[in-house]
Amino acid sequence: MTQQQPGPPAGYSAAQKWLHWLMAVLILGMIPMGFTMVGLPEGPDRNWVYELHKSVGMTVFVLAVIRVAVRVARGAPPLPAGMPGWQRAAANLSHAALYVLIVAVPVLGFIGTSMCCSPVKLFNTITVPIALPGGMETGKVVLAVHGIAVFAMAGILVAHVGGALMHAIVQRDGVFQRMLPGRD
Ligand code: HEM
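^ thats the input. predicted complex w/ protoporphyrin IX containing FE below
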């Protein structure tokens, strides 16, 4: 007797939807926060924003790991059957890139900080004990790559939001609605 393979789910789970919107809010806050904080004058205010940035960034990392695990375990609902091939390819490619970047961006920030600067103290409570070797020079290079990865992430996010709005307003095919909590 042949065993039937389980197909893709009919919709996103509540956990997938809530993770999506929570991370969207955090990341869309982190991008302007990061670009603003690097221009602040040296002092306690700048340090405070840096510490907040690191703590929220580590939170994004934990959520990203959970999110990737849920995505791998559960999959995603299929795209509408009539969707043109190029849109399908663009959606799959941008989603894959975003999954990589939501993990890579905070990891780069953490590695760079651990190499060059102070250890990460989560919301001023728990010190994350990994101090990586590398020193100031390498740490600065890693943080520069962190910034470049954020640029890539921001560019893909613009396309991602544009695509979502196209589905919601122009195509009205339910692709946007299926990511809304409380909807199938
Ligand atoms: C999704 C998560 C994150 C986002 C979206 C983000 C975003 C950014 C952005 C936009 C910048 C400015 C880059 C530039 O000016 O070129 C920045 C800088 C920085 N980020 Fe993050 N970040 C994240 C996570 C983290 C984490 C987890 C850490 C450390 C634990 C971290 C540490 C830093 C540091 C130290 C800088 C300053 C670099 C410098 O002074 O040159 N970031 N981040």
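The helical segments are 14-37, 44-74, 85-116, 135-171.
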